[in-house]
Write a structure and sequence with these properties.
This protein has about 190 residues and is an alpha/beta fold. It has a five-stranded parallel β-sheet, with helices on both faces. Strand 1, helix 1 and strand 2 form a beta-alpha-beta unit. Helix 2 packs parallel to helix 4. The longest helix is centred in the C-terminal third of the chain and has 55 residues. The protein is rod-shaped. The protein starts with a strand and ends in a 6-residue tail after the last helix. About 20% of the residues are buried. The model has no long low-confidence stretch (mean pLDDT about 85).
């Protein structure tokens, strides 16, 4: 299944290049968002779920310069979206320093990449997106199993209640009817008439 990667930056040419490199991998599709308004619109549309054409991303990549310019408003906004919880966050930048890396990590970055993306950078994006999807699918499976377990516990509880009622009925009516007649009444209540 194709992984959706949100790439957020305000330089249209850089975003086109990032999109081209990500899409060339074949297993990913990049959605470029060029402004804070576009980020808000995409996140809110994604919150609507199935009614929206915008899928939950497997990874979000921010252009550091844009994020810095807007005082990380887009980063903060996306971090507050419940449906995007756990989605890995990358930053991309032309030059890297220890201070810049520290700042990106303080904003929740998993990885800081050079732009334009190298083959290794694309591979890192692809692997992280794949790992996120596997984890998300595993979480869904665990929730599904927990629901099945609750259903089974409810069925067992109802069966115990039914057995207790049948024992009580057998004690009460067993004095008046043979086991064969009592079983017939339980299996076919119309037969009681």
């Amino acid at each position: 299944m194709e992984k959706i990667i949100w790439v957020i930056g305000d330089d249209r040419l850089e975003m086109i290049e990032a999109q081209r490199r990500i899409n060339a991998a074949g297993s990913m599709r990049a959605l470029c968002l060029l402004s804070f308004e576009a980020v808000q619109k995409a996140a809110l549309a994604q919150e609507e779920g199935e009614r929206s054409r915008i899928s939950t991303p497997s990874l979000i990549i921010f252009d550091y310069q844009m994020a810095k310019k807007e005082d990380f408003a887009s980063v903060l906004f996306l971090r507050k979206q419940q449906s995007l919880g756990g989605v890995p966050l990358f930053f991309m930048t032309e030059t890297r320093t220890k201070e810049l890396d520290r700042e990106c990590y303080s904003w929740g970055a998993t990885v800081v990449l050079h732009k334009p993306f190298s083959k290794e950078g694309i591979l890192r994006i692809e692997q992280t997106a794949w790992q996120h999807d596997v984890t998300k699918n595993y979480e869904k499976l665990l929730v599904q199993q927990a629901n099945h377990l609750r259903e089974q516990e409810e069925i067992m509880k109802l069966n115990r209640q039914l057995e207790a009622r049948n024992r009580l009925l057998r004690q009460v009516f067993g004095q008046y009817f043979s086991d064969d007649i009592f079983n017939e009444i339980l299996e076919n209540p119309e037969g009681a008439a």
